[in-house]
Amino acid sequence: MSKFAHGIRALDLSYPEEEEEGEIDTSLFKRPSSIVVPPIWLLGVLYSQPTLQAREYYNHFESILWMTYRKDFPAMVPYEHTSDAGWGCMLRSAQMILCQALQRHLFGSNWRLRIGEKLEDDFIKLLGWFVDAPAMGCVYSIHNMVKIGMQYDKLPGEWYGPTTACQVLRDLVNLHSKELNGFLSMYVPQEGVVYTEDVKKLCVMTDPSSSRVVSELETPNESNSVIIYSFMF
Fold it and tell me: Is 121 left (phi over 0), alpha (psi -120 to 50) or beta?
């Protein structure tokens, strides 16, 4: 157990305190001297020198949205659940994967949250899609996920498997895509097998003649549709 704890401590990058403007105290990372902080991969980005890249790493880490159990949200009528503690883990994991995919598509993989500054309007709109409320504007709320889940014989309070969670989000994505000018698609592979022809069909289902531009959030960066692969096993 002590060896295990030692290994975990080696990955612990507690945010360093700034001594002066523009300077970072890295002494925290050097104690004890026997511990060497290994390179860190975070969503495809390599931080080969974590002690020297602490600010970059934390800005990236803080930009990743975390969705977990909640309580005291509006009751799920008629079942009156006001918390998903103990049964919503798969739904929250699915939310995070979708949210990260949307964030990357809408803002780019290099986008970072500017800590201490006012949130961008489009980012606030993205957050609103995942607010836990029964409103249709909160498209990917746990309320709407559970509502769709009932079509797959899942009642509120029941544990979801990865395939069902992905199918629920796929259905919500299809509904949401109509409001976003059709640029969004989601592909759920069956038994872990991706069929390229199915993916190609999704890529061309969007009407290419549509050119309505309402806001930056509703305009795809590079193409008329984005395919989100949901691999959850």
Answer: alpha
